[in-house]
Amino acid sequence: MRVATPALYKCIILRSRAQAEALAATLKTTPSLRSYITRLRLEGGLGKCMEDIIPGSLNIVDFVMTVEVWSPDNPVALAQALPFMKNLERVGLTALTTPGTKRSDMKFPKSQAVGHLLTTFVSCMENH
């Protein structure tokens, strides 16, 4: 392991399913890297691989996720993984918008999966 490895894994920002899959594969082959992850930002549902990222990453204290999860992203695995984050100190929900968009013009996906994700998120925060 190199000197800079802990710094590379301290703050993880995932913007695509491909990035999430690559991180999940890396964590499967080198589980010790999970201990370095303290900040996690997710922009999308990011698919089934969230089950491979969050549950073993026990040092996450900062967590931010976007509430904009559009098809084909599926947030079900993320909702199932959220309860494993037991050490959270700071959490946030964001809405990604294009510059110049008014709040009144923002549209959020209205799907059962997104509703389940937000309900699970709130439930996890109430249990902290």
What does this molecule look like?
- The protein is α/β, with parallel strands linked by helices and 128 residues long.
- It has a domain at 10-95.
- It has helices at residues 5-10, 17-29, 50-53, 76-81, 112-126, and strands spanning 11-14, 39-42, 62-66, 90-94.
- A four-stranded parallel sheet has the order 1-2-3-4.
- Strand 1, helix 2 and strand 2 form a beta-alpha-beta unit.
- It is globular and about 45 Å long.
How would you describe this structure in keywords?
globular; four-stranded parallel sheet; single chain; alpha/beta; 128 residues; 5 helices; 14% strand; 4 strands
Summary of the model, kept short:
34% of the residues lie in helices and 14% in strands. The chain is of the alpha/beta class and 128 residues long. It has a domain at 10-95.
Number of helices: 5
Question: What integer value in Å does the Rg equal?
Answer: 15 Å
In N-to-C order, the SSE pattern is: HEHEHEHEH
Look at the helices and sheets and give the structural class: alpha/beta
Helix content: 25-40%
Order of strands in the sheet with most strands: 1-2-3-4
End-to-end Cα distance: 34 Å
Oligomer: single chain
Low-confidence stretches: none
Shape verdict: globular
Arithmetic mean pLDDT? 83
The tally of strands reads 4
Proportion of strand residues: 5-15%
Described by strand count, sense and barrel closure, the largest sheet is: 4 strands, parallel
